[in-house]
Amino acid sequence: MERLAPNNKVCGVGVRNARSGGDYRVLYAVMQAVSTLARRLPRGLSLLLANAFANTVYFLYRLTPYRSYISGNVRKALNEKGEKIFSPSQSRRIARSSVVNLVRGIVEVMRFPNRESGKIVSIEGMEHLEAALAKGRGALAVSAHFGNWELLGAAISEQGHPLSVLVQPPSKSAFERLFIEFRASAGVKTLANHGVASLRPVFKALQRNELVGLICDQHGENLDAFGRLFGHPVSIPASPYSLSKKTGATILPMFIFRQKGDRHLLRISPPLEADSPDDFARKLCRFYEAAILERPEQWLWAHDRWAREKEFRGPE
Q1: DSSP 8-state class, residue 316
Q2: 3-state secondary structure (DSSP) of residue 122
Q3: Contact partners, residue 118, CB within 8 Å, separation at least 6
């Protein structure tokens, strides 16, 4: 069996939040009030307000010196494929829609205590999950910051399959504390990612034949596996590959797509089998590209995926 390197950084969910100051309690109370309002309003109205807020945020962002940052990421990635050249105006539309998707997703997470996922999420490929769990070794649900990735976990949990997600080490922010509570209300357990120290609860979850959720579309800090995403070399955390080799857990790529009428489609793909960490990274990048090309406005373009491109020994 392959051993995990002592410094291996396990991929996780979410973006780090800034640490809170002395106003932590006030901010937490305000956010609790906002989330309570989001839950009590009709779902359509709460998402309509989210739209208005997101468009306002994007308008203000466009007034800053960073106004071309997100749309620049869109053009850098999608124009590289050569299948369709995105003009600056098209890239800006995708960038704005990406911000709207993110804010709508946050509102949907705030509504987790309402237990709505069964009503708004359709699932394709459940047979792949059931076949994986039939082996009795658990499954690794590998996804991306795409669609409403938090809702993906809630939908799986509501189907009766316990799921834990790895997140970046807690930053003690009000936002992060609330997200842990929202996940718990949907039956999703949060595991803090402290590298190898995080692996004991991961192993135990897999031994119980449960799922562990991993988001691997951001930097692999140890540069341990490499692929190409839209033609650019990227590092991918190799932890799903290593965990699969060590435990026998099946790797299942999963993506959730926002549909018309604010419904969602959760697509569970067949198992991803790989011969090496780099092979895993290359194959996972193909899954990422397919999902992003299908619905480019649903990826988190605000993250600079290629910030460390020159450091990578990515394959040609």
Answers
A1: -
A2: strand
A3: 155, 158
Structure tokens at 267: 């697509």
Task: State both tokens at 224.
Answer: 């341990």
* Total-model pTM: 0.88
Q: CA angle at residue 11 from 184 to 100, to 5 degrees?
A: 65
Tens-of-pLDDT digits for all 316 residues of the chain? 333 443 445 676 654 444 445 567 888 888 899 999 999 999 999 999 999 999 999 999 999 988 888 999 998 888 755 556 678 889 999 999 999 999 999 999 999 999 999 999 999 999 999 999 999 999 999 999 999 999 999 999 999 999 999 887 766 678 888 999 999 999 999 998 777 777 899 999 999 999 999 999 987 666 678 899 998 888 899 999 999 999 999 999 999 999 999 999 999 999 999 999 999 999 999 999 999 999 999 999 998 888 767 666 555 5
DSSP 64: S
User: Encoding tokens for residue 7?
Assistant: 């410094």
Given the DSSP bridges, would you call strands 211-215 and 163-167 parallel, antiparallel or unpaired? parallel
Residue 30: C-alpha distances to residues 23, 36, 183 (Å): 11, 10, 19
